[in-house]
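Quiz preparation item.
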């Protein structure tokens, strides 16, 4: 059994003080992206739920686009992996 190595695909596996977790995820931007326009208690929940739904859709579109490109190159195994994520 071979061990998967994400760094072989260019994944950054160690930040060694160059960048924090929060910097990498741009948490300052994400956590300040909610601006309720009323005092309704459920508005923050509504905003966050819909923002996360949009992020999931963005990921699905990215995976489908990559799978389509892989299929065009007859790279079916990677394409199937991408499609399984959707």
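Solution:
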């Amino acid at each position: 059994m071979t061990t998967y190595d994400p760094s072989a695909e260019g994944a950054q596996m160690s930040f060694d003080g160059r960048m924090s977790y929060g910097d990498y995820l741009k948490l300052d931007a994400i956590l300040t992206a909610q601006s309720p326009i009323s005092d309704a208690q459920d508005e923050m929940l509504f905003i966050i739920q819909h923002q996360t739904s949009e992020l999931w859709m963005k990921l699905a579109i990215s995976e489908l686009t990559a799978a389509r490109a892989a299929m065009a190159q007859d790279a079916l195994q990677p394409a199937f992996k991408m499609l399984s994520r959707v």
